[in-house]
Amino acid sequence: MEAKHLSTDELESGLPQIKQSPKESGELQLIARRPAIGERDLIDEGELDTDEGLVGDNWATRGQQSDPPREPKLLAQLTLMNARAAQLVSGSKERWPLAGDQLYVDFDIGRDNLPIGSKVRIGDDAIVEVTEEPHPGCKKFVERFGMDAMEFVNSDEGKQMCLRGINTRIVQSGMIRVGDKVTKG
Question: How far is it, in rounded angstroms, from Cα 102 to Cα 84?
């Protein structure tokens, strides 16, 4: 799954496409469950649970492997990344899950469209709330997509557009499926 890392100029040339992301109603394009650190299961449907997060994902247990062990962060229960941004930095849909997020949406997740506290409905029943927990890139993001990609998503504009993604918490449980509608409210 090795791919060419894009330069800053190449990344910036993709901004107009990302800015065209739907603002009111988009689509869930990929679900990546993380059963263990470094593992990804691409699933067509999943269950969002207010206590467990994405059922089968290791969100609730991943902090236990830290030294010292830590409790799961409710404010980082579920991460969403804009699918257009994932495509730009990764180069192919097969590489999107390397970003480490669980849901990839064709939807404007930027702060102007979804300020902290905004609710997002996914499918018929599930609702998540945007939290204030920052979602910066990490060492693995740099290894997988390059330093220019890390600087791009963490630039002032990248942060405002939440190009690295957003942290959310689940406020209403429900089943989700690839292809589900993603809407504000």
Answer: 15
